[in-house]
């Protein structure tokens, strides 16, 4: 069956114009707003058949979709965890904070138009302050220059533009672009959200997005596959969020690195499509490449309810492609019985510190964590579905019926304009407001630090509970003393009503104003609205057929946007006497390397945003943040200030770090900034996947200690020479000569994961430089 979908936005409602024609091929033109975008299930099947014959074994679902998108299925070497795959993703999605740099890089490439369907989503630059409408209007005024740039760049280069207020990128993708068997890359680490609809959706840096938009095969190390077998049935207070909270506790923040997490088993059918998306979304917190669920009736129902019934029909015909083969092999198996799973809450300060909700009160008391819940926050890209909001509203109604409101402050973030409009129509939003909630804009908001929080002072110890996905130090409100816990929207709502971590809604009683003791009944909520979704306001701008005559202007005096200059090429020599800029102690996420929150406004201006380089990292020399020794002057200063001083005096430098360096966000600014300020290499015990790739893309050397104990040999004032670069080759370690200030030296071995193409990026100065060389 060949189905072409043209979806036109207008007059505040989506009008669906469907033309369907039967033929021998199972080809779906899956193209919300892009009629020429298509996936050919026949091509997917052909590629899978070629690979299956070569490997002569059953395939997992993730292998089917990934290998089904190989550029050369007949010739590609395929070894899990070792070889690099050259892939052809179907589409690209970019959120506004990362899209600025991605589009600036695409402009630098000199190409006239994107080669695959691509979209920009305005969700990161809206600060939560007062309420949805006011905050959105304020954001439009403050960010006018950036929005104009993104809209005009999208129009010129053929990229769809979702305006501010449309919703969070991942919810928009689920509602419009994800479907079973698609491969999508997105410039946000929580892109795997689309795995809830049977898609392989992978978070990447902007330079990777540029490759795909340029029509270049995209490289990914062949993932291992972790199988999570689900049995039993979800019920009561237990929610889909508890599955990933449990998995995070098992695998930790780096246990999924280099792997796709594939859920399977009879328990899958008890989880809604949006619930599966929640689980896949937070899979980013275990370092997984992505996560995915097999196609089933819950996905079919969601497709039908979001206007894509024709796609569901074709997926039904090709269901054998969209589920794992019987007898397929997983590199690791985790089994979870949903009938026995209890509600969980993870934190503080890391998303893998898992606790049953029944234990968190006593654990908090033991550790000196504040028991009072100051703020409860529900929504975000992880948990803002119609079902999530309905279950939270059912608890709000119970409290209101007894005369209770939230003791804590309470905020609600709808995931999309469609969700906002529908929960307003169906009364959920009113219930959540009546219980004390403030409905924020359809945007990321507090989840990424876009929160003008004023109820506590910076440095004041306090507790917040959220239904978000990430809870690193100071992430939500820029306060390092805030103890942030992540859990389900239902548990957040219950704890906000009770006002304390010591409340277990499964067993504990609340007291009504009249003195009556009562327990909250387990939450309930419809998976999808009984009526169709209300699409709300028209928020999409489709690019013109020909944008070649349009201009995209960047004011040279702007402090928000800056055209990029190419990085310098490798000079053909070893890197001699690199000064250690900082030896980082402990966890160093991309939030530590390139903070978000108020810094988001500079994401399109490389020089300005470089002023936040590593300001959150802990210096092992003094256990201080943003205070390092300038070896040239002997004085202490901020990390970016010292880096700029070194650059001005032609001193190249290196960063030394610990385990899982660069975990968290996909933001490539964490790689662009060190390159811009004179960094040449990052040497650590281990890297998070996306950050390691981003560093390679920008011409830096991400290297790991062959012996992790060698981390201890490096002193904060050392110089390091990296030798062996003239014979730099895949699989061949490099050497580092550590030169101490007392005149002694030591030599250690450094490993790397560069392949031949990536070595060419280093030699050219960046992947973008190499792309431009190939165009000549």
Automatic annotation (TrEMBL):
Keyword 4Fe-4S recorded: yes
Gene Ontology cellular-component terms listed: cytosol; mitochondrion
Main localization (coarse): mitochondrion
Q: Which residues form the Aconitase A/isopropylmalate dehydratase small subunit swivel domain?
A: 579-707
User: Sorted alphabetically, which Gene3D superfamilies does this protein's record hold?
Assistant: Aconitase, Domain 2, Aconitase, domain 3, Aconitase, domain 4
Recorded catalytic reaction(s): these are: citrate = D-threo-isocitrate
In this chain the Aconitase/3-isopropylmalate dehydratase large subunit alpha/beta/alpha domain maps to 63-499
Q: Cofactor(s) for this protein?
A: [4Fe-4S] cluster
EC numbers: 4.2.1.3
What GO molecular-function term can you cite, just one?
4 iron, 4 sulfur cluster binding
The cross-references to Pfam families, in alphabetical order and at most eight, read: Aconitase, Aconitase_C
**Highest taxon in the source lineage:** Eukaryota
Subcellular localization is given as: Mitochondrion
Q: In which pathway does it act?
A: Carbohydrate metabolism; tricarboxylic acid cycle; isocitrate from oxaloacetate: step 2/2
Note describing how the cofactor binds = Binds 1 [4Fe-4S] cluster per subunit.
* Residue segments, region Disordered: 512-532
Q: Which BP terms in the Gene Ontology apply to this protein?
A: tricarboxylic acid cycle
**Its function?**
Catalyzes the isomerization of citrate to isocitrate via cis-aconitate.
- What's the family? Belongs to the aconitase/IPM isomerase family.
Family matches, as NCBIfam families: aconitase_mito, PRK07229.1
Which PANTHER family has this protein been placed in?
Answer: ACONITATE HYDRATASE B, ACONITATE HYDRATASE, MITOCHONDRIAL
Name assigned to this protein: Aconitate hydratase, mitochondrial
Species this chain originates from: Cyprinus carpio carpio
């Amino acid at each position: 069956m060949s189905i072409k979908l043209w979806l036109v936005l207008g007059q505040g409602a989506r009008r669906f114009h469907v033309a369907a024609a039967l033929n021998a091929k199972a080809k779906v033109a899956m193209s919300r707003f892009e009629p020429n975008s298509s996936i050919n299930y026949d091509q997917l099947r052909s590629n899978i058949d070629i690979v299956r014959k070569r490997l002569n074994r059953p395939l997992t679902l993730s292998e089917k979709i990934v290998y089904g998108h190989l550029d050369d299925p007949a010739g590609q070497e395929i070894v899990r965890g070792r070889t690099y795959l050259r892939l052809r993703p179907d589409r690209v999605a970019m959120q506004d904070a990362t899209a600025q740099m991605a589009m600036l890089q695409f402009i630098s490439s000199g190409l006239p138009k994107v080669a695959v369907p691509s979209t920009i989503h305005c969700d990161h630059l809206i600060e939560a302050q007062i309420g949805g409408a006011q905050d959105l209007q304020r954001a439009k005024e403050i960010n006018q220059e950036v929005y104009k740039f993104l809209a005009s760049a999208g129009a010129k280069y053929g990229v769809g533009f979702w305006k501010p207020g449309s919703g969070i990128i991942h919810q928009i993708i689920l509602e419009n672009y994800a479907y079973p068997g698609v491969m999508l890359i997105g410039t946000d680490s929580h892109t795997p959200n689309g795995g809830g609809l049977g898609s392989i959706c992978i978070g990447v840096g902007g330079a990777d997005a540029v490759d795909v938009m340029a029509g270049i095969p995209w490289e990914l190390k062949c993932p291992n596959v972790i199988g999570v077998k689900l049995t039993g049935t979800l019920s009561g207070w237990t929610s889909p969020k508890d599955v990933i909270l449990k998995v995070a506790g098992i695998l930790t923040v780096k246990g999924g690195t280099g792997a796709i997490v594939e859920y399977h088993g009879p328990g899958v059918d008890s989880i809604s499509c949006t619930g599966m998306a929640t689980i896949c979304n937070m899979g980013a917190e275990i370092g997984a490449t992505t996560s995915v669920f097999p196609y089933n009736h819950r996905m079919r129902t969601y497709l039908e309810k979001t206007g894509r019934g024709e796609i569901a029909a074709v997926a039904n015909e090709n269901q054998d492609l969209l589920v794992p083969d019987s007898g397929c092999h997983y590199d690791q198996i985790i089994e979870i019985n949903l009938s026995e799973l209890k509600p969980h809450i993870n934190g503080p300060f890391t998303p893998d510190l898992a606790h049953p909700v029944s234990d968190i009160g006593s654990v908090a008391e033991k550790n000196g964590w504040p028991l009072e819940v100051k703020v409860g926050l529900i929504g975000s890209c992880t948990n803002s579905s119609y079902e999530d909001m309905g279950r939270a509203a059912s608890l709000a109604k119970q409290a209101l019926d007894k005369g209770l409101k939230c003791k804590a402050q309470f905020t609600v973030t709808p995931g999309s304009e469609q969700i906002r409009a529908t929960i307003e129509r169906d009364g959920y939003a009113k219930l959540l407001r009546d219980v004390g909630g403030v409905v924020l804009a359809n945007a990321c908001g507090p989840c990424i630090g876009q929160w003008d929080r004023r109820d506590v002072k910076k440095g004041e110890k306090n507790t917040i509970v959220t239904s978000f996905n990430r809870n690193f130090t100071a992430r939500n409100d820029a306060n390092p003393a805030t103890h942030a816990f992540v859990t389900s929207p239902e548990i957040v709502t219950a704890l906000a009503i009770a006002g304390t971590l010591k409340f277990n809604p499964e067993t504990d009683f609340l007291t009504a104003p009249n003195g009556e003791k009562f327990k909250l009944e387990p939450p309930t909520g419809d998976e999808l609205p009984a009526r169709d979704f209300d699409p709300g306001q028209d928020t999409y701008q489709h690019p013109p057929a020909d944008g070649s005559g349009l201009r995209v202007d960047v004011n040279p005096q702007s402090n928000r946007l800056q055209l990029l200059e190419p990085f310098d090429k490798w000079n053909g020599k070893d890197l001699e006497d690199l000064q250690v800029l900082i030896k980082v102690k402990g966890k160093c996420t991309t939030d530590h390397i390139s903070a978000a929150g108020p810094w988001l406004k500079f994401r399109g201006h490389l020089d300005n945003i470089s002023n936040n380089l590593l300001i959150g990292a802990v210096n092992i020399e003094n256990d201080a943040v943003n205070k390092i020794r300038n070896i040239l002057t002997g004085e202490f200063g901020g990390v970016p200030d010292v880096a700029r001083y070194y650059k001005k005096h032609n001193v190249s430098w290196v960063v030394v770090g610990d385990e899982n360096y660069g975990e968290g966000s996909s933001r490539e600014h964490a790689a662009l900034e060190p390159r811009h300020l004179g960094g040449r290499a990052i040497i650590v015990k281990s890297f998070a996947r996306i950050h390691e790739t981003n560093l390679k893309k920008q011409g830096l050397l991400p290297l790991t200690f062959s012996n992790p104990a060698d981390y201890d040999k490096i002193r904060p004032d050392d110089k390091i020479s990296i030798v062996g670069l003239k014979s730099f080759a895949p699989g061949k370690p490099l050497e580092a000569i550590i030169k101490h200030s007392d005149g002694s030296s030591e030599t250690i071995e450094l490993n790397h994961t560069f392949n031949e193409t990536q070595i060419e990026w280093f030699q050219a100065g960046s992947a973008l430089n190499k792309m431009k060389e190939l165009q000549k």
